[in-house]
């Protein structure tokens, strides 16, 4: 995973890198390298790649005053090859949503060993908010008494879920969303996507380019567009509630709720060109939105999705048919 991120330099992260470098490592740096950094910002903007870039600069054996790691020394080559003994990555295991205490203990143990090559030992924590209470408490001890030349870099899209005691011991680096041009340009370099698809993917991804890239690379965008025709078809005839329901629940029910919310939100905020939605009053659109929101919240609770979808689709059918007649 780290290997894939070495030498990845997203254009929109240049400002954040510059800020970090000037603040902590450059000739004019006002502060020494902190023991703990917290990189915050939306999911899907490349915080981990920035963390890897910082780690590489710290581990690089070419100690000059240039901004970038040299890419040539043994440390740089090891990183690009897939592993460096003084760099660790912590993240939740595949079968779990949480980072557990044993994982943190293991990490701390490895940090306490003497640094092998460069002097620094660096640990990256991806989605740090996933640490459960015990894991966070274990990490806190290390943050309180960090070893010499030990650097922890926490990445989190939801820093509010981290204990305040952890946040307060980290230097904060907020990574902003890219401007729309950089995001579009980046997505155009990946494949021959249409500008319509790129813009829809960016909207769905909250303007986060890596998340948008994931959507573009999957069949999800087509599902999102299908919702249009399915809901139109329910009003005009040719589609049935049971057919739509089985289609939605078979794929990813939670995703469908989010996409329905997205389309409705476009309507409520005056950004839709969907004819049927334009005919529905603002008040009724709000009602549909609130029902979908309830459906989405329940979608994680183990209730039957088909019943939730059916209820909402009935409401849609009645509201949209009525609006179509006026
Ligand atoms: Zn190097």
List keywords for this structure.
Zinc Finger, Delta Prime, domain 3; 3 domains; binds zinc ion; five-stranded parallel β-sheet; elongated; 326 residues; alpha/beta
Could you please describe the fold and organization of this structure?
It is a single chain. The protein is built from 16 helices and five strands. The protein is elongated, with a radius of gyration of 24 Å. It folds into three domains: about 1-175, 3-Layer(aba) Sandwich (Rossmann fold); about 180-215; about 220-325, Zinc Finger, Delta Prime, domain 3, CATH 1.20.272. α8 (about 180-190) packs across α9 (about 195-205), α11 crosses α16 (about 305-325) and α12 crosses α16 (about 305-325). It is an alpha/beta fold. The protein has a five-stranded parallel β-sheet with strand order 2-3-4-1-5, with helices on both faces. The model has no long low-confidence stretch (mean pLDDT about 90). Zinc ion (ZN) binds next to α4.
């Amino acid at each position: 995973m780290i290997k894939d991120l070495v030498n990845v330099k997203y254009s929109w992260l240049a400002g954040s890198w510059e800020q970090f470098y000037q603040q902590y490592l450059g000739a004019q740096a006002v502060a020494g390298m902190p023991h703990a950094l917290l990189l915050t910002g939306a999911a899907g903007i490349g915080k981990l790649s920035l963390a890897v870039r910082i780690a590489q600069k710290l581990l690089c054996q070419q100690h000059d005053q240039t901004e970038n790691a040299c890419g040539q020394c043994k440390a740089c080559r090891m990183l690009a090859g897939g592993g460096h003994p003084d760099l660790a990555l912590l993240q939740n295991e595949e079968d779990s949503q949480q980072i557990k205490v044993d994982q943190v203990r293991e990490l701390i143990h490895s940090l306490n060993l003497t640094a092998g090559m460069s002097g620094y030992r660096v640990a990256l924590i991806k989605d740090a908010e996933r640490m459960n209470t015990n894991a966070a408490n274990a990490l806190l001890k290390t943050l309180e008494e960090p070893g010499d030349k030990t650097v922890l870099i926490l990445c989190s899209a939801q820093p509010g879920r981290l204990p305040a005691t952890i946040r307060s011991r980290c230097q904060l680096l907020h990574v902003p969303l890219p401007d729309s041009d950089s995001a579009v340009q980046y997505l155009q370099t990946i494949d021959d996507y249409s500008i319509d698809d790129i813009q829809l993917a960016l909207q769905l991804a909250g303007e986060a380019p890596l998340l948008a890239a994931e959507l573009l690379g999957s069949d999800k965008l087509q599902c999102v567009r299908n919702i249009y025709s399915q809901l139109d078809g329910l009003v005009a005839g040719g589609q049935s509630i049971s057919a739509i329901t089985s289609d939605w629940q078979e794929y990813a029910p939670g995703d469908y709720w989010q996409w329905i919310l997205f389309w409705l939100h476009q309507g409520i905020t005056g950004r839709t060109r969907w004819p049927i939605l334009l005919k529905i009053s603002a008040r009724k659109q709000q009602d549909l939105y609130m029902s979908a929101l309830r459906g989405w919240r329940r979608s994680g609770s183990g209730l039957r999705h088909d019943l939730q979808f059916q209820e909402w689709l009935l409401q849609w059918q009645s509201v949209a048919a009525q609006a179509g007649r006026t």
